[in-house]
Amino acid sequence: MTDRETAERDFLPLPEATFHILIALAEGDRHGYGIIQDVAAATGGALKLSAGTLYRSIQRLLEQGLIVETRDRPAPDKDDERRRYYRLTPLGSAVARAEARRLTQLVRLARASGFAPGKA
User: Fold this and answer.
1) 3-class SS at 114?
2) Model pLDDT for residues 25-62, shown as the tens digit of each residue
């Protein structure tokens, strides 16, 4: 295992909200409310992030270097100057991919044990 793979695995397993935030940012820069909307839409409303959960998670992700606040902004007529926009870092992308691989392996094991539908 490389040093990078070890570093990525140090973040795993990710909390569900964190993984969904990273997935939302994989599609492009987002502001907080946009992330909340994306997560709710992607989960069919099963996961509704509160503002408190979102901003605590964002603060942790910023500190860990998984996301950054970006100064890039949409056109002024489509923006609110009070918004902060966030972007996934290369490390954040790598960690999200590592979590997806981990979850895929768990599903394989569950299928092999008969706990999940589908082929093992």
Assistant:
1) coil
2) 999 999 999 999 999 999 999 999 999 999 999 999 99
